[in-house]
Write a structure and sequence with these properties.
The protein contains 9 helices and 11 strands. By secondary structure, the protein is an alpha/beta fold. α3 runs parallel beside α5, α4 packs antiparallel against α5 and α5 runs parallel beside α6.
């Protein structure tokens, strides 16, 4: 049963574009409100609000150190918010008290909630001693406890979809960077997540391999997979995302339709940042 937020918990509003947004239900997949996070006394997130609707693709762009990866880590429970709330499918995992301090649900509830999302890291994070097959099937079998026949059928479909046929028994060191990232995406999708997060998925790849991964993500977008993508690939973000949030200094400076933000930004800081890409800097 969903737990209602207490009085005083900020409720973000959605700026979702038409297209893939909110198919099947009006309840957002993800709601983050008033997110504040500090490390060693330095506040790196300053009250972030972010809503992602079902079937929507949201791109997060911005300079290094702007808080992009931190908001993803908080959304995926790798870090805990200091203040603010976190909600998946109407179920609050963290609520904000009267002073804004975040209060999290019990450990069992949080473990169960991890099945709602998948996270694809920039450096793959595959188990180096596991084969491709085991990297993809291990968590669905031993964490989610799903039926082996169903898990193996899904894994085989994902291997074929990711162009990894014949590599099932390979270990990560025997794969190219692009193949490793495709295994990472397959592993995340094998969990049947409600939403998929990408943290700079092409930053460790050369341009040719980058194209391979961007095509995979484009295909997922065409299939209405709900995604949040942190990226420096501006043209890709403009073309694939429904909405883009530009972050700087721990805040969302500008948010709106993807093409509007990239091609016609309203804020001067956004214009300056995007101008560096236009100028080839």
């Amino acid at each position: 049963m969903s737990e209602n937020a207490p009085a005083g918990t900020p409720q973000p509003t959605s700026a979702a574009s038409a297209g893939r947004a909110a198919t099947g239900t009006d309840v957002p997949v993800l709601q983050i409100a008033g997110a504040v996070k500090s490390f060693g006394g330095t506040e790196v997130l300053h009250g972030i609000d972010l809503t992602v609707n079902r079937g929507e693709v949201v791109g997060i762009i911005g300079p290094s150190g702007s808080g992009k990866s931190t908001i993803l880590r908080c959304a995926t429970l790798l870090e805990r918010l200091d203040r603010g709330s976190l909600c998946y499918d109407g179920d609050y995992l963290a609520t904000a008290g009267q002073d804004g301090t975040s209060s999290y649900r019990d450990a069992k509830t949080l473990r169960a909630a991890r099945s709602k999302f998948g996270l694809v890291f920039q450096n793959f994070n595959l188990f180096p001693h596991y084969t491709v097959w085991k990297n993809i099937t291990d968590a669905p079998l031993h964490v989610q406890g799903r039926d082996r026949d169903e898990v193996e059928r899904v894994a085989q479909d994902l291997i074929r979809k990711m162009g990894l046929d014949g590599r099932e028994r390979a270990v990560p060191c025997e794969l190219s960077g692009g193949q490793q990232q495709r295994v990472s995406i397959a592993r995340a999708l094998a969990l049947n997540p409600h939403i998929l997060f990408f943290d700079e998925p092409t930053s460790a790849l050369d341009p040719e391999l980058t194209g391979e991964i961007l095509k995979v993500i484009r295909d997922l977008a065409a299939e209405h997979m709900t995604m949040v993508i942190v990226t420096h690939e501006m043209a890709f973000a403009r073309d694939v995302a429904d909405r883009i949030a530009f972050m700087d200094g721990g805040v969302i400076v500008e948010e709106g339709d993807a093409r509007q933000v990239v091609d016609n930004p309203r804020r001067e800081r956004t214009k300056t940042f995007l101008g560096k890409f236009t100028d080839g800097a």
